[in-house]
Design a protein that fits this description.
The complex is a heterodimer of chains A (524) and B (313). Chain A is 32% helix and 23% strand. Chain A contains 16 helices and 21 strands. In chain A, a hairpin with a 3-residue loop joins strand 8 (196-202) and strand 9. Chain B has 2 domains: 2-70, no CATH class; 88-311, Orthogonal Bundle (MetI-like fold). In chain B, 79% of the residues lie in helices and 0% in strands. Classes of the chains: A alpha+beta (524), B mainly alpha (313).
């Protein structure tokens, strides 16, 4: 090596050394300084949000984007308890017929206007018309504006669970400007009050959000909490990219082109275990895996037959295979350890029994004679069809002639709304278990429960639940509901299923939740 | 005159396509109310959504509305995208067309060269290995090959993006980078078809007297192969290319999903999954127009390549 080359090599080595040292020093100070402002974060989800009009859809993809853009008067905190967000608070009259909401002052919309009671009234009236769950306002008779920052909800009757329902993020009752009152579903100006505003939507490609510079932080809190709290937008821009193919999603994360995967396939998570570039988080309480039986159609109209299906199933095998191991066995109809947890009431005798002999005896008692059992499932949500395949094998083992009818998701939703023509339907319930007992029971009560034919006992218990004055009273009612579900056998609880989410390791502050919060996260 | 006649004959084709798509929309179970209402929607909410989008009207009334608008050049309005069908389809058409065109160019250039090489070196190792290569291309599923390319060039080497689309008007180099892997994937699977057809057609022509005469006259191998043999072998090759163009347009649906390209294929598939009927009907009609146009171009090329075909008409 020539002298010159040696010298330049040595200089280069010295320069590199200094660079490494400097980088290390800055990295340390960066860690100490913590949050970094600016930049862009890219989140991946697997399909288009069907609408960016938050009220009009209960789609999870829409919620992922919209809950960073819009806010509600009340929403759930981290422990699923209603907390004020755009409201200062609420005063409920002793007779429960008047809810007086006071609003936070100075909260700005993305268009620069200040939120007032007239906007709230217009939003609520629009929600009644176009809200995907507009019926949650059925309990309200009228809305009365008292002044710019006070609005009264006059109730038709006392509804102790109203605030919980009203806080639901399923198709949230967001506050939008009064000017959007008359907008048809999906045709608003996309203006909200959240820390980010929508600036671009290219279907099948991406939604771009930009930091709302005039965002009015809720300084009553020290940081984000559930759907509310003090929210801080660190990134200037958040892009929600649509990548359909799971393999391509993971490749984009590995290549560093995107920062957060909304859903990480378990196989990829196992492969990337120990990676220094990628962190995987598990949300264990993501959904309930269920199997719904049509109590109105032929075979399954017989309660003994439905009981036979319940005792025949090996839930561990069904959910274990369907989720690739991402599950918890739980026969209860709320998550363990939560307020309304009724333990194994009802479940003790029926959950995960896999009792072939008892199932055969019950089938005999039901007079079953090898008639076809039509099992409806879809190919759009992989957990559903995997669940169906395992259930079919287990039911065949006890002598039930199962025929799987696999269609796409909209077809499945349409077919299950028909009173006959199907016996079983696989469904993951995501948001209902999160919302709690009233939301779960609501899908099993009313004129058209999931299992088609209403159960009068359950109907009465649902009324008792929503009218329960105290949490203790409602807890007691819910225990009776759980017991009744193991008597009627219209719906079978298979297990609790989890969700994996992944981020690049340099994304700080991200915590798995019901939607990817792009506020209060930053790049290290 | 020939072109005008061909264009006129496309009208009944498009009419049939429109009727079939309209009837299919009516026959398939499910509609937009499922997407917007979700699993917990009550029958009343579903009915309200249907009413909002006019889905509870009788089929004939809906058909009359749709055709009435169509004759005025209006393809309708998307239920979900908050824009007209024409806007939604035409802003995505360049993505799909450029992907299919790039795929066709790559498949044609490499397919024809491979086929010529195999024919000229008939029964040699070159012939056999070219055909094995072509067979591999034909046999590999395109979505799998696409994922392999993503892992190699996007993740391991980091040379090209793993997906996404950059419009040519924004950044030419970015467009080339975003289209390289999808076009290669599309081309690889179709290259085999063109290579095999070229080989077989060239073998037929290379055996004929006029080629022997050309060689006897002392013409160079290049002139014999490319000027005399290839020109005469091109008609069946162009036929295959025409068919390939159709396959590439429909195959683009899968590639668009793997590489996250916002093309017409993904638009239609996504709309089918969500039952956004106006987009499905309008998108399929526009796609049918593109197919008709491609066939027309192939027919015109026949005439240009082979005067006998032209004179017959």
């Amino acid at each position: 090596m020539s002298e010159y080359r040696k010298r330049t090599s040595a200089l280069r080595a010295l320069a590199m050394g200094s660079l490494v040292a400097l980088t290390a020093a800055f990295a340390t100070s960066g860690a100490a300084l913590a949050q970094t402002m600016g930049g862009t974060v890219t989140v991946v989800h697997n399909s288009n949000p069907p609408s960016l009009d938050a009220m009009a859809t209960s789609s999870g993809q829409s919620r992922n984007v919209n809950m960073n853009v819009y806010e509600t008067l009340y929403g759930f905190d981290e422990n699923i308890v209603p907390m004020p967000i755009l409201a200062e608070g609420v005063d409920i009259s002793p007779d429960g017929l008047k809810y007086t909401f006071t609003l936070r002052k100075g909260v700005k919309f993305h268009n620069g206007d200040v939120m007032k009671a007239s906007d709230v009234k217009a939003s609520m009236e629009r929600y009644r018309k176009v809200g995907a769950t507009g019926n949650l306002l059925n309990a309200v008779e009228s809305f009365e504006i008292v002044d710019d920052y006070t609005i009264i909800f006059h109730m038709k009757a006392k509804t102790p669970t109203f605030l919980e329902s009203f806080s639901s993020p399923r198709a949230p009752a967001v506050i939008i400007p009064e000017e959007d009152f008359a907008a048809e579903a999906g045709k608003t100006s996309l203006v909200g009050t959240g820390p980010y505003k929508i600036t671009e939507y290219v279907p099948d490609s991406h939604v771009t959000l930009e930091k709302f510079a005039d965002y009015t932080q809720d300084t009553r809190y020290s940081g984000p909490d559930g759907f509310g709290g003090k929210k801080t937008a660190y990134f200037d821009k958040a892009i929600f990219r649509v990548i359909v193919e799971p393999g391509a999603q993971v490749a984009a994360l590995e290549a560093g082109e995107v920062d957060i995967l909304d859903v990480m396939p378990p196989s990829a998570a196992r492969r990337l275990e120990g990676s220094k570039d990628i962190e995987v988080q598990e949300n264990k309480l993501w959904a309930f895996s269920t199997f719904i039986l049509n109590a109105n159609d032929g075979l399954t109209s017989n309660v003994k037959f439905r009981e036979a299906v319940q005792v025949a199933l090996n839930m561990e095998e069904v959910v274990g295979i369907a989720t690739e191991g991402l599950f918890t066995l739980n026969g209860g109809w709320v998550y363990p350890g939560t307020t309304y947890d009724a333990g194994d009431i009802g479940a003790a005798d029926y959950y995960n029994k896999h009792d072939v002999e008892k199932a055969k005896a019950l089938l005999k008692e039901a007079g079953y004679n090898n008639e076809p059992f039509s099992l409806l499932t879809d190919n759009s949500i992989p957990v559903h069809n995997k669940t169906a395949v395992v259930i079919a094998e287990q039911l065949k083992a006890v002598g039930i002639n199962v025929v799987i009818n696999q269609v796409d998701w909209p077809s499945a939703l349409n077919l299950r709304m028909q009173d006959t023509g199907w016996n079983g339907w696989t469904l993951s319930m995501g948001i209902e278990p999160y919302l709690g007992p009233a939301a779960i029971t609501a899908t099993l009560a009313g004129t058209r429960p999931h299992f088609v034919k209403p159960d009068p006992v359950l109907e009465e218990l649902y009324k008792e639940l929503t009218a329960g004055e105290t949490v203790e009273a409602r807890k007691a009612t819910f225990a009776k509901i759980q017991k009744q579900l193991y008597t009627y056998f219209g719906i079978i609880k298979l297990g609790d299923i989890g969700l994996l989410q992944a981020t690049r390791s340099n994304i700080e502050g991200f915590k798995t939740f019901r939607f990817p919060r792009v506020y209060d996260i930053w790049r290290q | 005159m020939f072109v005008a006649r061909r264009l006129l004959s496309a009208i009944p084709v498009l009419a049939v396509v429109s009727v079939i798509t309209f009837l299919l929309m009516w026959l398939i179970p499910g509609d937009i109310s499922a997407e917007l209402g979700g699993t917990e929607a009550t029958p009343e909410i579903l009915e309200r959504i249907r009413e909002q989008f006019g889905l509870n009207k009788p089929i004939l009334e809906r058909a009359a509305q749709w055709y009435g608008a169509l004759f005025q050049g209006d393809l309708g309005h998307s239920y979900l995208l908050n824009r007209s069908v024409a806007d939604a389809v035409f802003e995505r058409l360049p993505v799909t067309l450029s992907l299919a065109a790039l795929g066709l160019v790559l498949a044609s250039v490499f397919g024809v060269l491979l086929g010529i090489l195999a024919a000229v070196r008939h029964n040699s190792w070159v012939d056999q290995s070219s055909m094995v290569g072509a067979l591999i291309g034909l046999s590999i599923p395109d979505f799998w090959f696409g994922l392999v390319l993503i892992i190699v060039f996007g993740v391991l080497l980091g040379w090209l993006p793993t997906g996404g689309y950059v419009p040519i008007t924004e950044d030419f180099l970015g467009w080339v980078r975003s289209m390289t892997l999808p076009a290669l994937t599309l081309a690889f699977t179709q290259m085999g078809v063109i290579a095999r057809m070229t080989r077989s057609s060239m073998l037929d022509v290379l055996d004929q007297d006029f080629i022997r005469t050309a060689r006897a006259k002392g013409m160079s191998a290049y002139t014999v192969v490319f000027k005399h043999a290839l020109r005469n072998a091109l008609v069946p090759i162009v036929t295959v290319m025409g068919l390939t163009a159709g396959v590439l347009l429909s195959g683009a649906v899968v590639i668009e999903s793997v590489f996250s390209l916002p093309g017409v294929g993904r638009l239609i598939v996504g709309s089918i999954q969500r039952r956004d009927f106006p987009i499905i009907q309008g998108g399929l009609l526009v796609t049918a127009c593109v197919f008709v146009f491609v066939n027309l171009v192939v027919d015109i090329l026949y005439g240009w390549l082979d005067p006998r075909v032209r004179n017959e008409r």
